[in-house]
Each structure stands twice: as structure tokens, then as C-alpha cells.
Amino acid sequence: MPVIKANSNHVRLLARLMRAEAEGEGELGMLMVGNVGVNRVKANCLDFKEIRDLQQMVYQRPGGFEATVKGYFYQRARDREIRLAQRVINGERQHPASNALWFFRPEGGCPGQWYDQPNTGRFKKHCFFAPTSQNCPRVYS
């Protein structure tokens, strides 16, 4: 059962985002980027109060994804990424992105907090950050 509503165009859009942001980090890295995207649609808190679907999430300004701004979001979604995106939409979660709303790729180590949000861990080159359950309870449901 999907945890958010998504039509086939939204699934492909999320798949493109996952590929653009984390293709070099393999399937697990792409699933984690997908977790962040789905969490932003579910959240209805902090920077994501008006985000209601995957298209709004992908193109959010300000606060969106670097891939959509810097030009490497042009590649189409392949079957592999589409299947991964559907898994995330259906509720599959991967730690440390399970409840994360943000990630970034620092030059060095992960900071303990980013914009007052605690670090939940690192996977390869990406650091993940999640709000508290008091600030964003829907991310934890």
C-alpha cells in the first residue's frame, strides 16, 4: 500500500531525482534519496508545509534539490530506478534516511546538526538529517 499518492509520471519523476542525486551510490543510496523525497511529501512541517505531491517536492524553491538546478536532472528514468522509486513510495525505508528530510554531500565528515536538525548517519558520501518526532510527527508514521 503506497504511503503517498503517486501517478506514473510522479513515479518516473522521483526515479529521475534518485538517479541524478545518487546513481554513483548504488541502489541503496538511490533508495535513501527516495526516502527523503517521500518524507518531504508526508511531512507537512518545517520547510515542507505546502508540499502535497512528488512534483511539488522535486521542484520546490527554495529548498529543493541541487540536481534540478545544476543540470544533471536531464536523464530519463530507467526501469531500475522506476522499480526503486515504487518501492519507496510503497513504504520501504532505509536507515539512516528512514525519517530524514535533508541530505547533503560534505567535503569532510558529517556535522552533528544541519540547520538545527540532528544527523541520523552517513551512507557513502551523503549525510542525512531528520527532524524530531515532536517537530514533524508525520515523518515518523
What does the radius of gyration come to?
14 Å
Distance between the termini: 14 Å
Helix content: 25-40%
- Low-confidence segments, given as residue ranges, are none
The proportion of residues in beta strands is: 5-15%
What is the ordering of alpha helices and beta strands?
HHHHHEEEE
- What's the overall geometry? globular
The pLDDT mean sits at: 94
Across the major sheet, the strand order is 1-4-3-2
Number of helices: 5
Structural class: alpha+beta
- Count the strands? 4
The major beta sheet can be summarized as: 4 strands, antiparallel
What does the secondary structure layout of this molecule look like, with pairings?
Blueprint: H1 8-22, H2 26-43, H3 54-58, H4 66-70, H5 79-89, E1 102-104, E2 113-114, E3 117-123, E4 126-129
Antiparallel strand pairs: 1-4, 2-3, 3-4
